[in-house]
Write a structure and sequence with these properties.
The chain is an alpha/beta fold and 340 residues long. The protein has 14 helices and 6 strands. It has helices at residues 9-53, 58-76, 82-94, 107-113, 119-131, 136-144, 147-152, 157-166, 196-205, 207-214, 260-277, 296-302, 322-326, 334-338, and strands at 181-182, 218-229, 232-242, 247-257, 286-293, 310-316. α1 packs across α3 and α5 packs across α8.
């Protein structure tokens, strides 16, 4: 062993240099992104202010962007097509104060956000992209699945405004829930012929997408998780651990409608995990029965005075009707939007 290698000090040196180098790379990328966003915002400002001095009509704006695209592309090459210039213009109009533009998101994120006309909806996806560290592909998928509209459907007006202001923050078991869960990523055409086992296998094959649909904080533990009760084996379809709520989340999947016996079974699983699987610091488990159809009255009676952390939620295999969901937002006053 040479003096350089003594007591592993050299490897420690390599590790510290590597950490500094990687951190420096990240800072450089962030600095470039910050500069790019500010530059595009300023270009948008110049365009809007020029329009306001001229004939502010749609045709006038179209001709202006076409001419700018042609001239700027000759000067600077790519990046100044009409679509991109229009996005810069939108960025200034939607974010008139540059400081409100988050430099933690890329220009590609903002291109997707600028496609959303509704202020509340756009604000939600911006906040949620930051909270859950979505890449652009994940943002596009959540927009297509109408996540905001699905969450808003179960909220009152103030709840919808809170979603837009803060995003979906996980603080209690009910914050985990979505109605319906959308499993379009399984690519199952209708009419479909699947068993629960087949559906479960498809979910496992697309686990990354399923975790994205579940939301932030889920860690996969196991499939067909085996437990022994009274010398008889039982299996929970899917088991997760939620790192924010610090509890197990048990999911059973039903092809059609869940019955009272399914509720009783899930309650039994939750009791087992609370007594046998929980360790110090774990909170009581949460049980979710995912069903194609839902009998609200049956579930109400089946869970009467029982576990308050047991839920039945619907899922669907195709994207929801956005127009039906969007009517929810029409009830939120315009003044509330502006004061958000």
């Amino acid at each position: 062993m040479t003096a350089i290698d003594e007591a592993g000090k050299y490897q420690n040196l390599v590790g510290r240099i590597s950490e500094s180098y990687i951190a420096g790379q990240k800072r450089a990328v962030q600095a470039v992104n910050t500069s790019l966003l500010q530059t595009y915002w300023e270009i948008g400002q110049h365009i809007v202010e020029f329009e306001q001095d001229g004939k502010a009509t749609a045709e006038y704006g179209k001709r202006l962007l076409e001419r700018l695209s042609e001239d700027l592309s000759k000067l600077y090459g790519k990046g100044f097509n009409r679509s991109n210039l229009n996005n810069m213009r939108k960025m200034y109009k939607y974010y008139p104060i540059c400081a409100t533009v988050s430099h933690k998101l890329s220009w590609s994120h903002y291109v997707e956000l600028l496609k959303i006309e509704d202020e509340l909806e756009r604000s939600f996806y911006e906040k949620q992209s930051l909270i859950e560290n979505w890449n652009v592909r994940e943002l596009i998928r959540q927009k297509k699945s109408s996540l905001f509209l699905r969450l808003a459907a179960s909220q009152n007006k103030e709840g919808i405004l809170q979603l837009a202001r803060k995003g979906k923050i996980i603080e209690s078991p009910t914050d985990l829930l979505r109605e319906p869960y959308v499993l379009e990523f399984l690519k199952i055409p209708e009419p479909y012929q699947l068993s629960e086992t087949n559906l479960e296998q498809r979910i496992i094959d697309n686990l990354q997408h399923f975790l994205l649909e579940l939301g932030k904080g889920f860690a996969f533990v196991g499939r067909q998780y085996r437990i022994m009760l009274g010398n008889r084996p039982h299996r929970v379809d899917l088991v997760f651990y939620h790192r924010i709520l610090k509890c197990f989340v048990l999911i059973d999947i039903k092809m059609d409608e869940a019955g009272y016996e399914d509720v009783g079974q899930m309650n039994m699983y939750m009791g087992y995990f609370a007594k046998e699987e929980n360790v110090e610091g774990d909170n009581p488990p949460i049980g979710i029965i995912l069903a194609r159809h839902k009998d609200e009255l049956l579930i109400e009676y089946a869970t009467y005075e029982s576990n308050s952390q047991l839920f039945e939620q619907k899922y669907q295999l195709y994207l929801p009707n956005k127009e039906e969901l969007r009517r929810i937002l029409s009830d939120v006053p315009e003044t509330s939007r502006q004061n958000k």
